[in-house]
Amino acid sequence: MPTPRRSESTQGRKSLHMTSDASTWDNGKLITEYQRYKRDEWPREKTRRTRRFQLGRVAKDLPSLITASEDDLLRWRDRLRGSAETTAQYVSVISGLYYWMVVIRKLRDDNPAQVLKRPKVPVRLPRPMLPRHYELALACALSEPELYIWLGLMGCSGLRCCEIAWAKTHEVEERDDGGGIARIEGKGGKVRAIPIGQMLMLTMRPFLLGRGSLFTRPDGHPWKPDQVSKRVNNFLRGIGLSETAHTMRHRFGTDYHALDADLFRQAKVMGHASVHTTQLYTEVDPIEAARYVESLTVRRLKLHRQPGWIQSEEVRGRSA
After folding, report:
1. Which of 75, 132, 182, 206 is the S-S candidate for 194 at Cβ 3.0 to 4.6 Å?
2. How many Å apart are CA 248 and CA 128, to the nearest integer?
């Protein structure tokens, strides 16, 4: 019979060793100092706000993070509700907090978060916007130059909503052939070089004359990422499409891969740290795959004579 885990009252307090000032660290102080430590890794306000919300929820469920035991964290993990992806994010956040607490600040000598296991997150399938829907969206946006450019940047260059919102005029350079290169800071504060086609650059030229943000709202202030996403999604719903802005980035990933099978180069173009992420944006064309399978079948089976039990349509017709 397995030995039951000791309860909090008998287990944690004897084996828990903290520094002399650790008892003065309440949840508020811990979270504030941890966020200060992670400031460079969380350069964007949206990221900091999300992590602050997640840490706040953890602190609400665990009133004393500094003294929490393995049992406390396991019970907290059992109370989590939501998708496997959401649970994995919370486990990652609290694991990072205790790593900082133990390894960096040395507030305690044990890491209770080591008992937490990240759930297996199902692999997401690519969700590219249908080609005819993308063409419809572009056609319907012709009367709105800014929106038309956004759709073009999403579906033809793979830009995210946040990258469109954060783009500056000085970050877009025109090439000798009429195309362009945008060196835009994206997720995680990483800068990547994004090619822009000649036809889209021609449309963008009036927007490149000013300084500061490439795209601004009617009140002169720059767009925020969620505002770009909301505007595009509302536009798509208004013309009868159920897809979202992000599906155009999936459309770009799929179309680009059909022209260039180098996943490493595509990952660089799309701003992915791993080609595994790029694969989530790349849908395999079943018609193209069928041609490869047919070619392979002919190549393999033509080396053999047809077995006697395989009859032609003509033979089967006569026997019927």
Report:
1. 182
2. 6
Two structure tokens written together for 193 = 């070089």
- Nearest Cα to 18, choosing from 106, 98, 104, 96? 106
Residue range 108-125, pLDDT digits in tens: 889 999 999 888 877 677
What pLDDT, in 10s, does the model give residues 295-306?
766 766 665 555
38/201 Cα distance (integer angstroms):
38
Strand order through the sheet with 180-185: 172-174, 180-185, 191-196
What is the pTM (predicted TM-score) of this model? 0.63
| Residue 42 pLDDT exceeds 50 | yes
pLDDT of residue 248 exceeding 90, the answer is yes
Domain ranges of the chain: 15-115, 131-279
CA distance 22 to 248: 50
Q: What angle do CA 169, 173, 175 make, to 5 degrees?
A: 155
Beta bridge partners of 181: 173, 195
Q: In whole angstroms, what is the distance from residue 258 CA to residue 281 CA?
A: 12
Q: At what angle do helices 27-37 and 45-61 cross, to 10 degrees?
A: 150
Domain 131-279, CATH homologous superfamily name and number: Intergrase catalytic core (1.10.443.10)
Q: 103: buried, middle or exposed (CB in 10 Å: 19+, 13-18, 0-12)?
A: exposed
Non-local CB neighbours of 260 within 8 Å, separated by 6+ positions = 266
